[in-house]
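BUG-428 | component: ligand-complex export | severity: low

The export step for zinc ion jobs runs without errors, but we want the raw record kept on the ticket for reference. Input record follows.
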Amino acid sequence: MRTLIKGATILTMRSEEPFIGDILIEGDRIADIQPSISTQADTVINGEGMAAMPGLINAHQHTPMSLLRAFSDDLRLMEWLDKKMLPAEAQMTPEDIYWGAKLAMAEMIKSGTTAFADMYIHMNEIAAAVEETGMRASLTRGLVFLENDGGRRMTEALDLIQRWSGKAEGRITTMLGPHSPYTVPPQPFRELIALAEQENIPLHTHLAETKEEVVKIRETYNQTPAEYLFHLGMFEKAHVLLAHSVHLNRRDIGYLKGMRGGVSHNPVSNLKLGCGIAPVKDMIEQGITTGLGTDGAGSATTLDMFEEIRAASWLQKLDYGDPTKLPAFDALSMATTGSAALLNIAHETGTLEAGKKADIILIHLKKPHLQPVHNLLSLLAYSANGADVDTTIINGKIVMQGRQLLTIDEEELMKQVSIRSKRIVEGI
Ligand SMILES: N[C@@H](CCSC[C@H]1O[C@@H](n2cnc3c(=O)[nH]cnc32)[C@H](O)[C@@H]1O)C(=O)O
Ligand SMILES: [Zn+2]
């Protein structure tokens, strides 16, 4: 299969300079990018008036929580989790998880996201949805060790890794997921780190999301959350994906320096839950890889990565009282090359270049809020939103064109979501 995109304004994210040109896709990879390519193709896409850029990568998600969107807002994180989210999750059947994940994937594809990192339960169902929708994903079974059935969760985590790593034409990868410093005690945490190092499996966890977490870890271990992970040996060998990392002091940032992996900043979720502003600029200055994520739709409400790009940039400007901080290209880099590195797939995705996987989005520029095109980087970072994405290509396959989803039956999806979402929250 050869697909040719003609005459698009191409932003490769390898360089800051857009240019008008053509992109040739062969199978699942980009074969060539040039100002002009004349060749035969099975499908030709007219890219005129469109920007072509790498698909956005959502580095921290809980996809089935899309079924809990707008169910419970305006609460503190711990109360929201304990009183609303966990009871609702306990009501979710594997089929609910499948449809919730599919709802999230429909929204992601429609807003230009081509890959994501997910941490949840019933991962078989999420993996099946990834296989069908055509998305790229890094899947993690979230592990909490507060009750007695930690063993069952661990079996599920290992089963996911064995069954799904490298599956769906290589689109699925997996991680091990100790949920957070406040839900995993030192001994199981150490065992997970040892296993990750032994088997070369990346780790995905939450870190220092709220002030309450900082207080709790201080009371329990007389450490900061970052110190807790550092002394467990978390940042020595394994690739680690840290979500949030809002409350880090200078010394904490030092602990992360030189780590494999990095931090998924989730600015909209942090804003809405009143968590604080993550020290993104300081982390970048220390060479720590930073990417962007939404967190679940239960907290962030939408999965639109353009909102995250904008919020990330504007929060750093506000925090420093300095509009030169985190300029457009840097914020766009977080959502592409940064997140790709966090998912450990930077060799395959994150930029448009020959040889890489064809994960490409086309954004309609002929719209009042996207004209004139003085500076494409500014428009994409500060003005575009998910609904401006016209075409989404993942692994060389067109999964949305003209805003029509090609791998998901939207009508059936809406029907399932309506019935299931009501049943889940009954009595909570
Ligand atoms: N609770 C699961 C294991 C964790 S999966 C990932 C978990 O992260 C939770 N979660 C969602 N958003 C956040 C957040 O912002 N901070 C911490 N946890 C979150 C989510 O509700 C889900 O329970 C079990 O019983 O086995
Ligand atoms: Zn989360």
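Assignee comment: Attached the raw record above. The chain is about 40% helix and 25% strand.
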